[in-house]
Amino acid sequence: MSAVESVEMPAKADRELPPSMVERMTLILDAFTGPTTRLTLEQIARATHLPRSTAHRILDQLVKLAWLDHTSFGYALGSRSLTLGATGDRGINDLRTEAAPMLHDLMVRTGLVVHLAVLDQGQVHYLDKMGGRFAGAVPSRVGGRAPAHSTALGKAMLAWLEPETVDEIVGEELDRTTRNTIGNLNTLHQELHRIRSRGGLAYERGECFTNIACVAAAVRDADGPIGAISLVGDSQAPLERVAGLVAAATRELSQALSPQLAKPVRPRRRTDGLVPEQTWSPETMGRLMAAGRSSWM
After folding, report:
1. Parts of the chain with a pLDDT under 50
2. What is the reported pTM?
3. Domain 91-295 belongs to what architecture?
4. Residue 1: its H or E element
5. Rounded to whole angstroms, what are the CA distances from 264 to 34, 41, 219, 251?
């Protein structure tokens, strides 16, 4: 071996060293494709091609710094990651941008208050609120939060998570904000089953705020819910008339954010033999609304 070759060999070895700590952390965080993604240590090691022991050591640090959460069912994005807008590949800013014209259209067509929110652990985080004449009576605010199990927005997103994930997110004890709030996990899971049987439409009347009613549906990507849209009125508002519009808006937004979704994800099939509740088409909804708007609220 020549003197030149003996000098060049260390340089080649240096280039083959594993990536830096920052690069390794980035590899791990990139493995989480959405806010609801759950991965085991083995899955993360395979996705990043890092040694299992190395991945475990970095994961421990990410959990301590709240970039990730570690639960009995694996690792998930933590509060820091979610605060930065980790909603799949697009982020909260893109979610808001894509949703804005749809929210405005819903507000104009119905005269109701419109919300856009994401799921942050056991709470919904309001990203946008557009109001009609009823806006001042709705206590929500942009940047505010509410318990997910007590809102149509939250239930619409929880309905598309695994039951174990729901239990982990909402906890064993469900706080009640009104006498109508769901107060236990069994009742909540029954409600989430009903939401799935309706194709994802969630309702609530007086569960979060007294005398307030909502209908909501989730915005989803291939990994699960990334947000939700709701229409809000008083406790007597005929929300069934506008439910189809919410479903159509969230379906359109889901496909805009995730073009790979060629068609809506179908809800889980019922096992009780019952026929799912039918929803109106957007065209039919428009005719109903034109005929009945004067009598609303």
Report:
1. 1-17, 85-90, 264-265, 270-271, 273-282, 284-285, 287-297
2. 0.61
3. 2-Layer Sandwich (3.30)
4. none
5. 18, 31, 10, 6
What does the pLDDT read at residue 6? 37
H or E element at residue 28:
helix 21-30
pLDDT for the residue numbered 229: 97
Quote the crossing angle between the two packed helices 185-197 and 163-170, to the nearest 10°.
Answer: 130
**Residue appearing with tokens 């939060």:** 145
Residue 280's pLDDT is what? 44
Enter the tokens of residue 118: 């994401």
In one letter, which amino acid is 7?
V
pLDDT score recorded for residue 148: 92
- The C-alpha atoms of residue 103 and residue 19 are separated, in whole angstroms, by 44
Q: What are phi and psi of 219, to 5 degrees?
A: -95, 130
Domain boundaries, the chain: 3-83, 91-295
Q: How far apart are CA 67 and CA 82, in angstroms?
A: 8
CB-CB contact of 31 with 39 (8 Å) = yes
| C-alpha to C-alpha distance for 253 and 218, rounded to whole angstroms | 10
Give me the DSSP letters along 151-178: SHHHHHHHTTS-HHHHHHHH-SS---SS
Please state whether 294 falls in left (phi above 0), alpha (psi between -120 and 50) or beta. alpha
Tell the CATH topology of 3-83: Arc Repressor Mutant, subunit A (1.10.10)
| CB contact set of 53 (below 8 Å; sequence gap of 6+) | none
At residue 264's C-alpha, the angle toward residues 111 and 106, to 5°, is 10
- Comparing CA positions, the residue from 192, 194, 146, 200 lying closest to residue 167 is 192
